[in-house]
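Researcher: Next entry: Ferrochelatase (Alectoria fallacina).
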Amino acid sequence: MALRNPISQLYKHASRSSIPKAAATSTRHASSKHSQCQLRSMATVVPPVTQDATSSKGPTAMVFMNMGGPSTTDEVGGFLSRLFADADLIPLGRLQSYIGPLISSRRTPKIKRQYAAIGGGSPIRKWSEYQSSEMCKLLDQISPETAPHKPYVAFRYADPLTEEMYTNLLKDGFGGGKGGRAVAFTQYPQYSCSTTGSSLNELWKWRNRLEGKGATGLDPAGSITWSVIDRWPVHPGLVEAFARNVETQLATYPEESRKDVVLLFSAHSLPMSVVNRGDTYPAEVAATVYAVMQRLGFSNPYRLCWQSQVGPSAWLGAQTSDTVQEYVKKGQTDLILIPIAFTSDHIETLFELDQEVIHEAGHPGVKRAESLNDSRVFIEALADVAVNHLRSGESCSRQMGLRCQGCKSERCLEQKKFFVGQENLLSVR
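Model: Predicted structure:
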């Protein structure tokens, strides 16, 4: 049963009739520029956390995990090198160490131009740091027993990398004989071995390297106690935040034709080899889509499609770009793209959807719902997910402990055993 708190009550009583229709922004680029300026003005400096806090269970490190993105064009090469070296995300077989660098080097000039086109870099770090900081402020209020809450960001392929985050944890007084609790909070609401699983594999690797095992093979005394928020695809606050952004964009269409606008939910695709292995991601994305449509009262026709396919192998479809082109050819030109698996803007929204898919559609009726970015409803949803996790006493979901049917990865097995086993340590805190 979900634990009750003031934030969860907000979503319980929310209704379609109570949600205002916000006016549409004049252009997406102006909105993006305004948001980035606003974000810089909202940035705060968070002091280090020490282990002499007065709360009964604090302090608590809240670690946002995500793919990340290069903040400048100079970082694109390193970002792509790490991305194509990750067999969890892009499985290239036994020749991964050869093919990965080859693909990344060939793609770097093109990807640099794409990042230049959206302002010279990805805003995902700014949004992640803002979201985590704002969430921690709320947690300090609604969960004083685990306060103070210290925000961290750990990206899989860009700065700040997991190694840097873990080093900062130790510098700030967590672990290293001092104990302390940290929560790995995935910012992929829908679980995939390629995304959340890869991030957890990396976190487990650096945990072992930087905290290690004692002479007995057991965890050393005073190491960090970890727990994981590994998925949250149908959380009411997440659904509400998506639904409000859809309603805002729907309000820009003439009232007489609004109900006929097609809603196209778009999520990052997966190789079919990963899907056929038993990955839960497609089902969890579909669950999010259905929950959002349920909240909207199934007001419009809708479809789920997939974007960002890379390489010649088979990927999960239908592709977003193909879907838009086909509907426009058939005369269905009022379409709203909804990035349903992303929690902030980055290259897949600002360039792939805005500057490729929508531009190539060539019709003003094809638009995109805003990303979650600085949505207050979304920030409150994050805090609600976190506080319920902190009070649950669980180290991870029951789903996380179950491997995919076709999984052969020993690293995945050991990582899961580690995080599931942390529940024994949580029970004594």
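Model: Note for the record: The mean pLDDT is 86.
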